[in-house]
Design a protein that fits this description.
The chain is of the alpha+beta class. It has six helices and eleven strands. The chain binds coenzyme A.
Length: 240
């Protein structure tokens, strides 16, 4: 990831990516709670698990603080609405798109202009059910590629493909109901899709960007966008 330049300099062909940890402290929650809108607060209140609730408050408060300088609006006044399948968007700034993904205490946020984008992170850890997930969510060509790999390569390869598929369905806004098995990567040519649902063709218009997190080698991440974009680290900006 390219290093971030001063905030005002996010160029149109860049996507800014922020990666960080959620502290989930009471202090952070108190700080961020008042920035959330009624819907975000209501969602937080519905979370029974106190850790998940604190993480939700912090993630959405942080998101607002990070977006604020780009949109030139105070964090608490940004209108974040939700589209039909759950994708959040900026009602007053249609030129800006953002997406976020969390996993445990990790949070990644991506933001760009005049593009569709989706982001996904997953911990790259061995799980017994990977073969079942491959059967259900991978296309035949992806499954054959994966099954032929050495056991030592399977976990990483699985999450590479999985995060790309998730980032794609998030970029479209349709979510997993679009059918992960219909969004087919080309394992031989990382960075490209082989086949996509008809509404999102041609596959060549979509870019796949691998996200690497030097401090978290066991975290796998992907960003998918429909425009020619490169990624830069989110420029440093003061948080609330
Ligand atoms: C979006 C989805 C792929 C998320 O997968 P995940 O790996 O579990 O979660 P991630 O942490 O990567 O992403 C979650 C974030 O993506 C965003 N998101 C939610 N729905 C989204 C969608 N349809 N498209 C893009 N982004 C979406 C939200 O910001 C969410 O964060 P939040 O829950 O804190 O608000 C999955 O939940 C999904 O398919 N949802 C759609 C369900 C649906 O169709 N609902 C219709 C009724 S609203």
């Amino acid at each position: 990831m390219e290093k971030g330049s001063p905030l005002s300099a996010l160029e149109p062909e860049k996507i800014a990516v922020w990666f960080g940890h959620l502290t989930a402290t009471e202090d952070a929650c108190r700080r961020y709670w008042t920035l959330l809108d009624a819907a975000e607060q209501a969602r937080a209140d519905r979370l029974v698990n106190p850790l998940w609730k604190r993480r939700h408050i912090e993630a959405h408060g942080l998101l607002r603080c990070l977006l604020s300088p780009y949109l030139n609006q105070p964090p608490g006044q940004i209108h974040i609405k939700t589209a039909a399948h759950g994708k959040p968007f900026l009602a007053d700034h249609p030129e800006w798109t953002f997406n976020l993904s969390h996993s445990g205490n990790h949070l990644v946020i991506a933001m760009g202009q005049h593009c569709r984008l989706g982001v996904d992170i997953e911990p790259c850890k061995p799980q017994q059910n990977l073969p079942q997930l491959v059967k259900k969510c991978f296309a035949q060509s992806e499954a054959s590629y994966w099954q032929a790999l050495a056991d030592s390569e399977k976990t990483t390869a699985f999450y590479r493909i999985w995060t790309i598929k998730e980032a794609f369905v998030k970029a479209t806004g349709r979510g997993i109901a679009l059918g992960l098995d219909q969004c087919v990567t080309d394992p031989g040519q990382p960075g490209q899709f082989l086949r996509l649902p008809p509404a999102y063709e041609p596959p060549g218009q979509w870019r796949i960007i691998d996200l690497e997190f030097p401090t978290e080698p066991d975290l796998c991440g992907a960003l998918v966008t429909d425009q020619a974009r490169t990624v830069q680290e989110w420029p440093a900006c003061p948080l609330e």
